[in-house]
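Troubleshooting: if your tokenizer reports a length mismatch, compare your output against this known-good record of 218 residues.
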Amino acid sequence: MKYDKFKYLYPPRPEYKTPNKDLHKYDNGDYVVQPKYNGSCCIVFTNGKELQVYNRHKELLSNVCKDIEFVKLAKDDNWYVYVGEYLNKGKLGETGIKEKDKFVIWDCLVWSGEYLIGKTIMERLELLERIYPCHRAVVNEDNLEMYEHLCCTEYKGIYKAPAYLNGFEWLYSQIVKTDLYEGLVLKKKNSKLQFGFQPLNNHEWQIKCRKETKIYNF
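Known-good structure output:
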């Protein structure tokens, strides 16, 4: 389906939940998993010249860092729409440094003017991997950044969520140690992208697994 001018698209939104003790039930080859980051859901619309950055409530995302190279996410003069997390909360990352002003891609809805309706999550993730191979380190302004559960790109302020096909319980046990991660999102591999014209969309094939919250009895 052609997408040749800006029109807001709601991001796929997970609604179903599972506790971490049940993760093994989904570690059966049917799901792919990505870390859930502690930031704000962000949708980037660009054709290399125009740029629109919105949140999931159809509102322009305010106070976005001007240094992030969003427009370089367009590979030609057609429209591209990426969904991800804008790290704006300054949560501590893997190295103990506060992570802020970074955009982490975890899905692509429009590629070179084509709304990817009917494409599976695996097809979209494989497309992203071809264009943005998952490098776990980058030299940024003479500083070396290294991550376990975050992929670097060649563009300033642009990162990508890695995808995992197995070992979900182990992955959860690792990321809960870091404030930057809220948990996991499980996505059914054979699920196909449906239209995102309403706030609740594409929720049938996604499952959230959040960190456990501490309960204090006073």
